[in-house]
Structures are given as C-alpha cells and as structure tokens.
Write a structure and sequence with these properties.
heterodimer; A: 399 residues; alpha/beta; Spore Coat Polysaccharide Biosynthesis Protein SpsA, Chain A; 8-stranded parallel β-sheet; 38 strands; 18% helix; B: 608 residues; 6-stranded antiparallel β-sheet; globular
Chain lengths: 399, 608
C-alpha cells in the first residue's frame, strides 16, 4: 500500500517553531517527526511515501532528499497556496491509480507504536474504508465518531465543542481509503468532512481502534509530551562505539550517538538522548527526558532537564534549561536561566499568536525559536516565547 | 456464530483441517466435526460434542486420510448440543456432506417437502436440509454444480456453506450469503474458512467471497461465480498483512473491549427470549416455599443483584449463597428452588452446589450461556442467555445479560405474586428495551472521559467501591473487575457500612467510587450522597457514577463525576455497571495488564 502524508500545513500554534519549519520537521527523542512517521510506515509494509508539502517545504525536501535513510521511495507534491487539507489531498491524486487503496496520514500527529499497522490490519479484516480512532482528553477539537456495536462508524461530528464529561473516540488522522475517495472529495468541494460522510453513506467506514499513545502536535509544549512518551519506551542505554566518556556517570537509558564528546564530571540520567557530534562540557548535569540535537554544544556546568534542544544549539556555561524547547542553532549565553514555574505554583500560561493559552502544566520553561540569540545572564520567565532569529542583549530579564 | 473450514491438497489433509477448526474455535466451541474424502469413496465423517481438542482425541480425527475435507466448529442456535446435531451433515445416500454457518429461515418447510419425498432426517438442525436438498436436485439435474446452485436458490436466510461430494471428490463447493467466507490460496493446496484464521499459518494470499457468490476450489485452482447467473467473477487476491489474534478480536484491541461493546446486542437477545420460557421458569420458582440464589465470582454478584430485584419487584425474599459455600449453609428440601447463574455452565463450585441441592430434593434452575454444557444438562429448568461466545477471561457481557434476565424474571415473579400488574410489567419491560440504545450512547460518548480519569488515577493502589440497595451488588462486581483485570486492590461494600470502620482507611492512597441512584429515588439518593460527603470531609477522592440529574455536578461532593444519560430506577444499575467496566478496562490498559488473560485466572473454573 502507498501512503499519502499530509505535511504542508502551517501549524501556527506551534510558534515560535512554525515560523521556520513545518511541524513534521520538529525533532523529538533524537528524530524528526517525519522520520519517525516514515520509519513506522516502513514497519507497516509501506514502501512508497508521497508527501504533500507546502509551508517551509524546502526544509522537508532538503532533509529527506539528502538523508533518505529509510529505504523507501519518497515523492513530494507541492500543495501550492494553502487552501485546506481537502484541496491538498486532491493535488496528490495523480500519484495514485484507480482501484488502489491509500493510507492517508496527517503528519501533525504522533504515536509511539505503529498506528499504521493497526489501520492496515483493520482494513484487511473488512476490506472496507478504515479510519483509525482513539481516545483523547479533549475530543472537542477533533472529529468525534459514533460506532455501532461493532467497529462500523455510523456518524462523525466535527469539533462538537466542549461539553462536560463527554468523550467520544476521535479520528486519529490515519485512514485507509479507496482511490474513489478523490472523487468523493472532489464532489464535496474538497470538504474532508463531507467526503467522509459520503464514505459512511455510500460504502462503509470501519474504525481501527488505537489504544496506544496519540499526540496531536499542535502547541510547543506538545513537543515535550511527545519527547517524553517516546523516551518512555526506551528500555536500554545506547552508546556508540566511537564515544569516549571520561569518568562520567550514566544512569538509565541514555542514548549517545556517534562522535559525541563528553568531558569529565558530566552526569547523565536517562531517559536522555545526545545527538551525533555534540559536545558535553565539564560537570554538565543531564536529567531525565533531555533530548539534545546533533552538533550541539553544552557548556561547563550547565543543567538540562526535560527539554528538547534542536540541532546545532549552543548552551553556554552554567545555564539551566528546564521544561523548555530550544530551536535549531539557538545560542544561549553563559548563565541563562529558564524559570520553569510560577512563583505561586499556578499553571503556566503561554502566549501563542497573542492569545494566552492555558497549558495546565505547573512546570514549563521557555520556547526559543530557531536561530535566536540570548545573551549571558538572562533569566527567562516561565512560558516565554522567543521568536525565531530574535537577538536579546546580555543581562536583561525576558518575559 | 459457527466456524467452517476446508482444505484441498495433494497430500493428506486431516492435520491441517483439525488445526483450521482449532483456530476458529473462538467462533463457537460446543461441538465440532470433520468430513474427509479419499479417492472415490463416500466421505468419512467424525463428529461429537465438546471442544476441538477433546473431540479430535476422542474420535481420532487424525486417523482419517484424504486429500479433500471440510470441518465445522459449532455454537448452537437451532437444535440442542448433541452428536447428531453436530456438523457435517449428510444426505440420505451419503454422497453429499455439508457444513454451514448461518440460519436457514425456511428450513421447516424445506424439511417437510423433502420428508414427503422420502428423505430421512437424523438431526434437528436447519443445515441437514441443505444436504438433502442438493441430493434431491442432483437426482434430476445430474450435475453437482447445477444441483448446488438450485439448492442455494431455494434457501432463505443466511449462510456460508461448504459441500463435499463423492461425485466430484477432488474439490469443495462453497457459497456465501451474509455469513463470511474466505478462500486461502497456497501452493498445490487451497483453503476455505469463515475467516483467514482457518489458514493463516499456511498461506497469506486470500480471496474474499462477496454475498451471493459461490466458488469451486481444487488443489491447483479455484473459480468464483455468481449464484444468480453462473457468470464468472474476477476476484482480487489480497496479501494478508495482519495477525490472527487481531482478526478474532474484530478490530478491537482486546476481547474485553469487544465484549463490552457487544452489550447492546446481548441485551437485545435477552429481550428476544421466549415469553413462555421465562414464565414457565418464574412459575417453577414461585411454586416453592424457599428460593436460593447462587453463583460464584461475578455470578455471585449477579445472584445478589437478583436478590434485590426479586425483593423490590416481587416481594420475594431469596437466600443468597456463594456456590462454594452453598453446602455449608443451605438447607434444602423438596419445597426449595435453587437458581444458579454461570457463563460456561462448567463452574465446578456451582455444579456441586446444584448437585447438593438436587440430593436434598430441591428443584434446580440455571441461567447459562453455553448450550450443551454440564449445567445446562443437569438442571430442571434452563434459560440460555444467547450472549454468544465470551472469550475474555473477565466476564462483562455475559454478566450484564444475566442481570437483565434476572430483572425480567423478577417482573414475572411479581406478576405471579400479585405484586405487579400486567401494566407495571409492560412499563418496566419498556424501560429494559431502551437499555441497548443507552449503552451505545454511553460507549460512544463517555469512553473518552472515563479513559481520562482512569489514566489520571491509575497510580492509586487501593479503591473502595460503594453502593446502597441494588447498587451494592454493582459496587462489588465493579470492585471485582478492578481486581481481576487491573490487579488493583478494590473492595465493594454497602455505603452505609463505611462509617462503621472502613472510613479509617481514607487517605492519599485510597480512592472511592460511589454508585448513585437516580435523583428521584430521594431517600436512597440522599443517603448515598452523605457517604460521599463523609469521604470528602476527610479529603478523600470520590469518583461519582450517576445518571443525569437536575443538580449540577459541581455542587455534588465528588472529585470527578461520570454522568450517564437519565435513567429510571429499574435500569440505572445496568448503565453504572457499563461505566465501571470501562473504568476497570482503561485502568488495566494504562497499567499495561494482560487484559484478556489476567494472571492466575481461567475462563471457567472447573476445579474445586
């Protein structure tokens, strides 16, 4: 079966990272989301991956064409002007042929185990169009489904709004659909919701019930959740043969990639990941759920905790980075402190596109966009967003 | 549901055939049989009641030799569980052998017609008429294929059917209408099966027959044609990429969840039980001075639930005994009726309680899911619940079905005692009829919320489940579910009991679940609520399970509230039980438990 992966969306809520990259190009647990998706697809027997790109497409293209490490063939379709998911799906029609069944994947969601396998297997049971469904804490943002007393979907209600105590299974963004679906979509004016209703009415839509983790990568703090849930599946440490560790302490599943250099006194508590070519300075303390991207530099005495650091970042000496996401190539001067809780311990709010969002998290640090530079001795208030490329002078507190 | 299988190969197929039906046993397991053909002789048939393993050993299935064979594993719908009723079935001349899954609705008239023509029937099944019918058409048409089609056209109802005949001993004829049938394509051997579990260990290439198609399967090929006009159909060959476990679970991650979702159907089956059967059962109970209710594990709580319903709706005070304790406390004589419940009908403790009762002269009755089981055969009065096979070791749908049957019996007892009028009974029955739709609504709209709470609270090692009145047995059953499937310590008790000791346990490591009656049951509502308040006053966590009420949930003393659709007093416990099943299930999946086969447990406990 061929896959159609929708990766062209803008993902505005993922500020500041969406400014410089499409959501699937966010790294979690040492891998870009798109790589994670492709390796799961491969595991499910998919060898032909068609990706619809749009927003910051060069980033995705550059990465996949240069790396293409998965042993599957990858093709790109440009969605052009952003006109919604339905239009974008129709753009890829030529990649498929009549009679074929297509695995449709929204690349802004993530699972730790193989949801694609479950969708394809469920499809195999009935040979009918299939939608993966799952349970989530806040179903109001998604397509809510109703089942008969088996796995047949009888009704879908899109974004029903918040109702107390309600919780349907929701569409998980993974479908197996016949080629005919393009016609349905076309007739429905590229309205995905309407086209799915046509499937329910004129054919039959089966549910593949997914009971593993399911993460919608919508907000920057979802990066931390995704990172944690993948690292939680790690059961052993991994240290590449080229690694030298001078008298440092390792605890738990720490994955250290090729060419990493670790100086004396560093302590690493897993689950943690250190990407290839990174440098870990003297007396650095790496605490659980830290994910350091490739070619990063962590200066002397820095403390890192539950954070995702994109590739090529520099963390100066004596920094504390906790519950934060640091963009690609970000430079943090010496002594930068991310403050990761409010003084009254109330949940941290984050301003996303000028709206203050409740994160529900008591501990949350900063989100620093790609290429930003933060001068030495800055303390950054809990929940602060620093836009990509911004330069902040030394010694001024940031809120 | 039944399972059918077939193999055509160059070598001996008996072993392959037996392993095929063993893999289909989840579709039914009360009896089984095989037919094998060797060269030009008549098919050899072996069959009997019991599981595939038992029957295969007893009847020496593996001694049969041949290149072509069909097989069946049965879950009885028409005709009791007896050796003659087990499949395969044969025509009078022994030349046509048939296995079938489905229900032939016009079999009575077919049978009458064929008997008039001199056909002799040996079983009480609908299937046997298919074999005779084919023989009958063959005598006129002199072509197996034509006779097969003519017979299919004469059948009303649903079928997946396979035919083995000595006239053409190198092939299997098969066809489907509504019941599933799949072909498996191997090298020099081909398979048929109710689903691909029948052959997945041998081949991954499959062809799915559609409704109103038939197929002729040989070792080196197959054709698929339309029943209506005999035209060939070109079928797509699918490469199976899935595993058999998943197929048996029908797309659900666990049998437990599948069976929880089957509960609307199961209650519908209870509502379809014959009125005469229920009334006759109630009359037998009402005719005796003493009534005992018994069961063990979940069925003990079903019995306790019945105790409350018999009291409330029939004014009958029944004694309750866990079946393992029965003989130590029950005094039975010939003026005693003992009513037991058992999913499998093989539970050792309950069987021995019934034996004890019979020895004392009591009349016995049972509610059983598995037709032909020891208990079904042993009791004087029987109600078969018709819930379909329950595979998960933890009982959900079978228990809910038994509760619904108990409720219906309570109404009939009430009618006989003059406590209820026919109108009352009708009104309550109407409420029961609404149960399936409401359960569907709960499963669809509440799963997510219950999942979220279960996830958040899964670290809590101790739970108290509280209920008053008829919610007390619900609380105990819910606590048992939690223990069985999540390995989490849970205790069910009457909520009024709490302050007499147990409340001392309330702390950060102990959560409580309170099962609330509907608001219009004022006294019960207030008293249950006050127990919740007592726990909240000690900073305990309380999860409220209730049907919709006028008071806003935020004014209630609950940390979290599962609010179910509005329900009358008669049926509200059913809905709260479904919510509790989901809660245990999601706690267990969060804790990564072996949901369908919890440690140390077996589906039916057949030892002392």
């Amino acid at each position: 079966m061929k896959a159609l992966v929708m990766a062209g969306g803008r993902g505005n809520n993922m500020a500041p990272f969406s400014a410089t990259r499409p959501n699937p190009m966010i790294p979690v647990a040492g891998q870009y989301v798109i790589d994670h998706i492709i390796s799961l697809l491969k595991g499910a027997g998919v060898n032909d991956v068609n990706i619809v790109v749009g927003h910051k497409k060069e980033k995705m293209r550059g990465h996949l064409s240069e790396a293409s490490p998965h042993g599957v063939s990858v093709h790109f379709t440009d969605q052009g002007k952003p006109e919604g998911i339905g239009k974008a799906i129709l753009k890829a029609r030529d990649r498929f042929s009549p009679g074929e069944n297509i695995l449709l994947v929204y690349a802004d969601t993530m699972t730790t185990n193989n949801i694609f396998n479950v969708a394809i297997q469920s499809f195999g049971l009935s040979n009918e169009p299939t939608a993966a469904i799952c349970l989530t804490e806040s179903g109001e943002k998604y397509g809510n489904v109703y089942l008969d007393s088996g796995t047949k979907i009888t009704k879908i209600i899109e974004k029903p709004g918040k109702k107390e105590g309600l919780g349907n299974y929701v569409l998980a963004g993974v479908f197996v659909l016949p080629f005919k679906f393009f016609d349905f979509l076309d007739k429905a004016g590229a309205d995905m919701e309407k086209a799915l209703k046509t499937v329910i009415k004129s054919m039959s839509l089966r549910a593949a019930i997914w009971d593993g983790d399911w993460l919608d990568m919508a907000y920057p703090w979802d990066i931390l959740t995704a990172n944690k849930s993948i690292m939680d599946t790690w059961s052993f440490a991994e240290v590449h043969q080229s690694v030298t560790i001078a008298g440092s302490a390792l605890k738990g599943p720490v994955r250290i990639s090729e060419g990493v250099e670790i100086m004396p006194g560093a302590v690493m508590e897993g689950p943690a990941y250190i990407g290839p070519g990174s440098f870990i300075g003297h007396n650095v303390l790496i605490r659980p759920y830290t994910c350091i991207g490739a070619n990063s530099v962590i200066g002397h005495g820095a403390e890192l905790k539950n954070c995702v650091i994109f590739p090529g970042a520099q963390v100066g000496r004596s920094c504390f980075i906790g519950d934060s996401v640091i963009g690609e190539g970000v430079s943090l001067g010496a002594g930068v402190m991310t403050i990761n809780h409010r003084i009254d311990q109330s949940p941290v709010r984050v301003k996303i596109n000028k709206a203050a969002m409740e994160t529900g998290r008591a501990k949350l640090g900063a989100f620093i966009g790609d290429g930003a530079v933060v001068g030495a001795l800055n303390s950054i208030a809990a929940g602060t967003v620093i836009q990509a490329g911004r330069i902040i002078d030394h010694n001024c507190s940031v809120r | 549901m039944c399972g059918i299988a077939g193999v055509v190969a160059l070598g001996n197929i008996s072993e392959k055939l037996v392993s095929s039906i063993r893999s289909l046993e989840y579709r039914g397991y009360d009896s089984c049989g095989i037919a094998v053909i060797n060269g030009s002789g008549k098919p050899s048939i072996r069959k009997n009641i019991g599981s595939v393993e038992e029957v295969s050993e007893r009847e020496n299935f593996l001694d049969l030799h041949g290149n072509v064979g069909i097989a069946h594993t049965r879950w009885a719908t028409h005709g009791g569980v007896t050796k003659p009723n087990a499949h395969p079935h044969v025509s009078c001349d022994g030349m046509f052998t048939v296995v079938h899954n489905g229900i032939i609705s016009n079999y009575v008239s077919l049978r009458e017609r064929l008997e008039k023509k001199g056909h002799v029937f040996v079983s009480a099944t609908d299937t046997e008429s298919i074999a005779h019918l084919i023989e009958d058409y063959y005598s006129k048409l002199k072509s197996v294929e034509k006779a097969f089609i003519a017979a299919l056209k004469a059948l009303d109802g649903t079928y997946a059917v396979a035919l083995l005949t000595s006239h053409e001993p190198d092939r299997i004829y098969c066809a489907r209408k509504e019941s599933p049938l799949i072909l498996g394509l191997g090298v020099d051997e081909n398979y048929i099966g109710s689903d691909f579990n029948a052959f997945i260990q041998r081949t991954k290439s499959a062809v799915i027959l559609d409704d109103n198609e038939y197929s002729i399967v040989m070792s080196d090929g197959y054709v698929v044609k339309r029943i209506s006009n005999g035209e060939m159909v070109v079928k797509q060959v699918l490469e199976i990429m899935w595993d058999s476990e998943m197929a048996q679970k029908g797309g659900f991650p666990h049998y437990m969840l599948k069976e929880i979702h089957e509960q609307p159907q199961v209650v519908r089956a209870v509502m379809d039980l014959e009125e005469d059967r229920l009334m006759e059962f109630a009359e037998a109970m009402a005719g005796k001075a003493r009534l005992y209710l018994t069961g063990v594990g979940t069925t003990f709580y079903v019995a306790q639930f019945a105790q409350y319903y018999f009291s409330a709706y029939a004014g009958v005070t029944a004694s309750l005994a866990s079946s393992d304790e029965f003989k130590y406390m029950a005094n039975v004589d010939d003026d005693t009726f003992v009513l037991a419940a058992s999913q499998s009908g093989e539970t050792y403790d309950t069987l021995s309680a019934l034996r004890h009762a019979k020895a004392g002269g009591a009349v016995t009755g049972a509610i059983v899911n598995v037709m032909g089981s020891s208990m079904a055969r042993a009791v004087d009065h029987l109600i078969l619940q018709g819930s379909g096979p329950e595979i998960c070791v933890i009982s959900t749908k079978a228990a809910l079905s038994q509760m619904a049957i108990m409720a219906r019996l309570a109404l009939r007892l009430g009618l006989l005692n003059g406590k209820l009028t026919a109108r009352d009974v009708k009104a309550r029955e109407k409420e029961l009829e609404a149960v399936p739709k409401v359960i569907e609504k709960i499963l669809n709209e509440k799963s997510g919320f219950i999942h979220t709470i279960a996830k958040e609270q899964s670290h809590i090692p101790h739970w108290l489940y509280l209920g008053r009145g008829r919610y007390y047995p619900i609380a105990r059953e819910a606590a048992l579910k939690m223990k069985e499937v999540a390995y989490v310590h849970a205790e069910g008790m009457p909520s009024g009991f709490l302050k007499h000791g147990t409340i001392a346990l309330v702390d950060d490591n102990l959560n409580c679940v309170v099962f609330m009656p509907p608001e219009d049951d004022e006294e019960l509502y207030k008293l249950t609520l006050s127990s919740a308040e007592e726990i909240r006053a000690r900073n305990g966590y309380v999860l409220g399970v209730m049907t919709e009420s006028k008071s806003k949930s935020k004014h209630l003393p609950f940390s979290e509230t599962i609010i179910l659709p509005k329900a009358p007093a008669f049926t509200a416990p059913f809905f709260e039980m479904v919510a509790a099943q989901l809660f245990s299930y999601f706690t267990a999946t969060t804790l990564k438990r072996n949901v369908d086969r919890p440690r140390s447990l077996a589906k039916s406990v057949t030892v002392a």
